[in-house]
Amino acid sequence: MPVVAGYSGANSQGKSTTLGRGGSDYSAPSSVQPLAPDEVWIWTDVDGVLTADPRICPDAAYAAGNQL
User: Fold this and answer.
1) pLDDT at residue number 2
2) Is residue 49 within 8 Å of residue 39, measured between CB atoms?
3) Which SS3 state, helix, strand or coil, does residue 8 take?
4) CA–CA separation, 30 vs 26, rounded Å?
5) Is 43 left (phi over 0), alpha (psi -120 to 50) or beta?
6) How many CB atoms are closer than 10 A to CB 63?
7) Which helix (H) or strand (E) holds 25?
8) CA-to-CA distance for 67 and 47, rounded, in angstroms?
9) Interatomic CA distance for residues 1 and 48, integer angstroms
């Protein structure tokens, strides 16, 4: 069973970067896609993610995990 750290990715120029708030929820399925897993488990301490940092964007919306 591979265990992969999330939160990292690449920008449009192919340079390594961090994905920002909620980035691990997107990088996990992308990283294991070549392995063709039957399922991907994302362990987190929240039920969903915010669309932006609410300290910066007061209109940030909460997206439940099953809505992503």
Assistant:
1) 62
2) no
3) strand
4) 7
5) beta
6) 15
7) helix 23-32
8) 11
9) 24
